[in-house]
């Protein structure tokens, strides 16, 4: 969790960024767990909450796994003991297991989205899959936080960390141009029904962009247009949230989300650049809000 008084985590500090992303994954798992309690009283809201959580896991979650498997693990592996290297093998295996359960979960949600009356008959299956997903993800995240990250901090030097940052940045830019880099996980193989998720696909309808973004995120993006600036520092962006400590925390969370989704890019020293995707969404927000 990002806390006031601690530096904001960006891709410039890749290990901290990965750890902060773990907190956001845990938030989405909690949302998926709670959502089934609301099938009966607020089915549309429950489905929307699930849809947003799945979108996050399907885009930022996939990028996170790629950051680990492509940029982090290979730099660590040659310098690990046999026992430590076995940890990486297990983590990679767990990534596959998470992916498999998540794929099934998306199929169930797609069935519900296609026919919301299916929600209650499918409730048990949905809950079982969410329990399985949490049971895989939570200990995986805990191990990475408590064992992998300290190990990496002890091994990687500043130059290597900067290279990982650069790879993570490029990976996000490439994914923005070509979402298929995410490995086709938006429409898992064998899935007979699909749900359209906005976000990482990069080719979004105006309505989807706005529905997929909360009010504070829109306000943050609007500030770039209103101030006529391509880049703003964090202190200016805090104004979007009201500037009290709790609002600052929310703005930090939103800015991180906008970086993850490719709407903003970190330029160091707490400055953030509005990307072309961000500019498009910001213009949209100005026109509507
Ligand atoms: Fe992982
Ligand atoms: Fe991780």
Secondary structure: elements and pairs:
Layout: H1 14-35, H2 43-76, H3 82-114, H4 123-155, H5 158-177, H6 206-211, H7 215-226, E1 231-233, H8 234-238, H9 245-260, E2 264-266, E3 271-274, H10 276-288
Antiparallel strand pairs: 1-3, 2-3
Helix pairs in contact: 1-2, 1-4, 2-3, 2-5, 3-4, 7-10
The structure holds fe (ii) ion (2 copies).
Give your account of this protein's structure.
The chain has 289 residues and is mainly α. It folds into two domains: 14-201, Four Helix Bundle (Hemerythrin (Met), subunit A) (Up-down Bundle), CATH 1.20.120; 210-286, Arc Repressor Mutant, subunit A (Orthogonal Bundle). 67% of the residues lie in helices and 3% in strands. The chain is built from ten helices and three strands; from the N terminus they run αααααααβααββα. The chain has helices at 14-35, 43-76, 82-114, 123-155, 158-177, 206-211, 215-226, 234-238, 245-260, 276-288; strands at 231-233, 264-266, 271-274. Strands 1-3-2 form a three-stranded antiparallel beta sheet. Strand 2 (264-266) and strand 3 (271-274) form a beta hairpin.
Q: Give the total of beta strands.
A: 3
Distance between the termini: 29 Å
Q: Choose one word for the global shape.
A: globular
Beta content: under 5%
CATH topology value of the largest domain = Four Helix Bundle (Hemerythrin (Met), subunit A)
Bound molecules: fe (ii) ion
CATH H-level superfamily of the largest domain: nmb1532 protein domain like
**What is the level 1 CATH name of the largest domain?**
Mainly Alpha
CATH architecture name of the largest domain: Up-down Bundle
Note the total helix count.
10
What share of the residues lie within helices? 55-70%
Please outline the major beta sheet.
3 strands, antiparallel
What's the helix-strand series?
Answer: HHHHHHHEHHEEH
Are there runs of 5+ residues with pLDDT below 50, and where? Answer: 1-6, 184-212
Q: What is the rounded Rg?
A: 19 Å
């Amino acid at each position: 969790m990002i806390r006031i008084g601690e530096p904001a985590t960006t891709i410039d500090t890749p290990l901290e960024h990965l750890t902060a992303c773990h907190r956001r994954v845990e938030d989405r798992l909690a949302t998926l767990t709670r959502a089934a309690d609301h099938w009966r009283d607020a089915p549309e809201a429950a489905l929307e909450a699930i849809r947003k959580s799945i979108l996050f896991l399907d885009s930022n979650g996939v990028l996170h796994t790629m950051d680990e498997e492509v940029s982090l693990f290979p730099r660590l592996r040659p310098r690990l003991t046999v026992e430590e290297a076995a940890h990486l093998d297990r983590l990679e295996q767990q990534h596959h297991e998470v992916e498999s359960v998540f794929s099934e979960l998306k199929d169930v949600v797609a069935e519900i989205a296609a026919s919301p009356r299916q929600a209650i008959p499918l409730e048990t299956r949905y809950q079982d899959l969410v329990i399985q997903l949490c049971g895989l993800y939570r200990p995986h995240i805990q191990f990475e936080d408590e064992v992998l990250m300290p190990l990496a901090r002890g091994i990687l030097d500043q130059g290597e960390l900067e290279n990982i940052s650069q790879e993570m940045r490029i990976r996000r830019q490439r994914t923005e141009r070509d979402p298929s880099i995410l490995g086709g996980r938006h429409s898992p193989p064998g899935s007979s029904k699909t749900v359209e998720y906005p976000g990482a696909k990069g080719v979004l309808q105006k309505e989807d962009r706005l529905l997929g973004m909360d009010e504070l995120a829109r306000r943050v993006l609007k500030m770039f247009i209103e101030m006529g600036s391509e880049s703003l520092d964090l202190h200016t962006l805090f104004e979007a949230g009201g500037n009290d400590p709790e609002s600052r925390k929310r703005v930090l969370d939103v800015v991180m989300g906008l970086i993850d989704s490719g709407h903003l890019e970190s330029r160091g020293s707490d400055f953030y650049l509005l990307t072309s995707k961000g500019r498009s969404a910001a213009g949209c927000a100005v026109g509507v809000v």
